[in-house]
């Protein structure tokens, strides 16, 4: 533990619900659930009143309805939540030099070195009050020596709370808490630790480090460190915006618009699958094209946070249409998704029917098992070949030669490391 670090974790309280309550005061004090309807879909967010009934994010809406029949179900509006999210980030940008946007409603602020000029607690408290005043939305924060302890602090003082955990109190703060309070502990790990008789953080912290490594590998080591209040991960500056992108250079330059659109569709499909696998959402899409004379042009669009293909494909086609102004051959096309933040349950909320959401989940499962190109949209596959009598020759992907497979492979580059994923719940 480094006692010279001062990290603030700020998190909106029941963010989506709070945005709805701000619009409609009749919802104050009611059990409100965002996402799905009363009998289908999953809970994306719920009010603290609903949580008293045992309802939580990612729970099937049907179960939530059983637990609390009088709950009010709202479809949710990702456009509005994204707008509020950007406004909060803007308030922080104006006051803080070094911060990280961790999810749609969470920020980490690094105050290290500035604590001599400002009292960190006073600064954080004033920033919180500013956000409450300007946004009309409740927010909580934790202040401690690293990201993990600060986040646990926020979760402990929610809603409408603030909590400082100074260096010398870190262990005594963490010790009595249950191990599932450590960020990043999934259900499987929690079960495994329970089977080992490990329920309290103190028990986990006292296990020899080597033993934790032996049982759970690197993940075990990381958990052991967190249980001991150790977390060296840096606050990643917002200006180093994370992105994922992909680009394709054609074998021979082309002017075939429908082929370009099919390629764009394929690239966006692959990228969004990556996003969902990493439990990330994007708020910005960029399309790049390069003409045969090497002139390169780029168009970018800000979008509400999403990880779904359908909307992003339309956006990509739209940007391509705006970009491709010269009747010239193209040699390269590229797509980038940026302004990434952690988010997962929220993907079901955005401009999508429940059938579409179910379809995505099913397709992602197939892709996780059999590879990203095992399921593709029909428009990406070349039109069926016909024989001399104009009969369709059945498409059989297994007949693809190695050469053809190589050609169809899309080069993917990752600008920054998005492997460290904190599963975000809207709390
Ligand atoms: Mg939150």
Please characterize this protein's 3D structure.
This protein has helices at 15-23, 48-51, 61-67, 78-95, 120-135, 147-157, 170-174, 187-195, 201-206, 209-227, 257-277, 309-323, 354-370, 402-408, and strands spanning 7-12, 32-34, 45-46, 72-74, 99-103, 106-110, 139-144, 162-164, 243-254, 280-291, 296-306, 330-338, 341-342, 411-414. With 427 residues, the protein is α+β, with helices and mostly antiparallel strands. The protein folds into 3 domains: 1-164, Reverse transcriptase/Diguanylate cyclase domain (Alpha-Beta Plaits), CATH 3.30.70.270; 175-238, DNA polymerase, domain 1; 243-414, Dna Ligase, domain 1. Helix 6 links the parallel strand 7 (139-144) and strand 8. The two termini are 27 Å apart. The model is unreliable at 395-400 and 407-426 (pLDDT under 50). Bound molecules: magnesium ion. Residues 11-12, 15, 105, 426-427 line the site of magnesium ion (MG).
Layout of strands and helices, then pairs:
Layout: E1 7-12, H1 15-23, E2 32-34, E3 45-46, H2 48-51, H3 61-67, E4 72-74, H4 78-95, E5 99-103, E6 106-110, H5 120-135, E7 139-144, H6 147-157, E8 162-164, H7 170-174, H8 187-195, H9 201-206, H10 209-227, E9 243-254, H11 257-277, E10 280-291, E11 296-306, H12 309-323, E12 330-338, E13 341-342, H13 354-370, H14 402-408, E14 411-414
Parallel strand pairs: 2-4, 7-8
Antiparallel strand pairs: 1-6, 1-7, 2-3, 5-6, 9-12, 9-14, 10-11, 10-12, 10-13
Helix pairs in contact: 4-5, 11-12
The structure holds magnesium ion.
Catalytic activity: DNA(n) + a 2'-deoxyribonucleoside 5'-triphosphate = DNA(n+1) + diphosphate
Subunit structure: Monomer.
Subcellular location: Cytoplasm
């Amino acid at each position: 533990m480094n006692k010279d670090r001062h990290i603030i974790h700020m998190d909106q309280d029941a963010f989506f619900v709070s945005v709805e309550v701000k619009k409609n005061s009749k919802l104050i004090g009611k059990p409100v659930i965002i996402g799905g309807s009363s009998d289908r879909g999953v809970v994306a967010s719920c009010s603290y009143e609903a949580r008293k009934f045992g309802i939580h994010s990612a729970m099937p809406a049907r179960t939530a309805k059983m637990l609390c029949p009088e709950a009010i179900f709202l479809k949710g509006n990702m456009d509005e939540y994204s707008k509020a999210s950007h406004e909060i980030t803007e308030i922080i940008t104006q006051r803080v030099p070094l911060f990280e946007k961790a999810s749609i409603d969470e920020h980490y602020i690094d105050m290290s070195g500035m604590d001599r000029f400002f009292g960190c607690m006073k600064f954080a408290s004033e920033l919180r009050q500013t956000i409450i005043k300007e946004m009309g939305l409740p927010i909580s924060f934790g202040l401690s020596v690293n990201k993990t302890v600060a986040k646990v602090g926020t979760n402990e003082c929610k809603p409408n709370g603030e909590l400082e955990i100074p260096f010398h109190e870190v262990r005594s703060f963490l010790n009595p808490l249950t191990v599932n309070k450590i960020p990043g502990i999934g259900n499987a790990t929690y079960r495994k630790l329970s089977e080992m008789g490990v329920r309290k953080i103190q028990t986990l912290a006292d296990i020899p480090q080597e033993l934790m490594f032996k049982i759970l590998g690197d993940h075990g080591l990381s958990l052991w460190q967190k249980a001991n209040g150790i977390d060296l991960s840096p606050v990643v500056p917002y200006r180093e915006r994370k992105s994922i992108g992909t680009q394709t250079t054609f074998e021979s330059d082309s002017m075939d618009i429908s082929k370009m659109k099919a390629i764009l569709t394929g690239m966006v499909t692959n990228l969004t699958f990556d996003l969902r696998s990493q439990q990330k959402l994007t708020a910005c899409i960029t399309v790049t094209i390069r003409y045969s004379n090497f002139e390169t042009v780029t168009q970018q669009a800000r979008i509400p946070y999403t990880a779904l293909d359908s909307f992003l494909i339309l956006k990509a086609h739209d940007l391509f249409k705006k970009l491709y102004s010269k009747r010239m051959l193209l040699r390269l096309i590229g797509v980038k998704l940026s302004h990434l933040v952690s988010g997962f349950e929220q993907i079901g909320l955005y401009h999508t029917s429940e059938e579409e959401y179910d379809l995505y989940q099913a397709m992602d499962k197939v892709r996780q098992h059999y590879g990203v190109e095992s399921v593709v949209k029909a428009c990406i596959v070349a039109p069926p070949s016909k024989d001399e009598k104009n009969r369709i020759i059945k498409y059989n992907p297994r007949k693809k030669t190695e050469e053809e497979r190589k050609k169809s492979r899309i080069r993917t580059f990752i600008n920054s490391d998005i492997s460290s994923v904190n599963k975000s719940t809207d709390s």
